[in-house]
Amino acid sequence: MYSMTDEGFEAAIEEALDAMPDQFLAALENVAVVWDDEPSAYHLGIDESEWDAWHEAVVSAAEQGWNAEGALAEDNLSGEVFAEDDDLLGDDLLGLFDGLSLVERASGGYDDDIPDVITVFKGPHERCFASREEIVEEIGKTVIHELGHYFGLDDDKLYEMGY
User: C-alpha angle with apex 57: 55 to 61, nearest 5 degrees?
Assistant: First the structure.
């Protein structure tokens, strides 16, 4: 786990975006890249009561020393937060594309008054990675993954491509 200030996280996003290939950035139309501390119930596609329990468990586990793979970082902690096979922290949502892909836009009905949004989540990046360098690298991968959705690619194809 590596903690960053809000300003440091914003700088890491800027650094990751600056390192992206120009052809990705040039192809964007009306897409904003923003950040938030944690995914909300809306971002996770769950109802508010489920989110409260999920968020409390994730934050508690991170504070107790659970790592991104759901294993204890120290031997002296009990295993009551997660069962041994539970991989909740490993499933942390690092980013989300909220909008219409270019494929969906081409089918009509797109109103470009409101931008599509790529949100990068600070808390999950801090919990899942151990250094600033890793976070910057993973922010870049996260943004490219979410841009893949903007271009119409699904998760299976993006994971196959390494994102």
Answer: 120
- 51 SS3 class: helix
Report the C-alpha gap between 135 and 150 in whole angstroms: 22
* CA quadruple 91, 97, 99, 101: dihedral sign: negative
Give the chain's residues under pLDDT 70.
Answer: 51, 54, 58, 62, 64-91, 109
CA 73 → CA 24, 58, 124, 138, distances in Å? 38, 14, 17, 21
pTM of the model: 0.74
Cα gap 4→2, rounded to integer Å: 7
Residue 112 carries which DSSP code? T
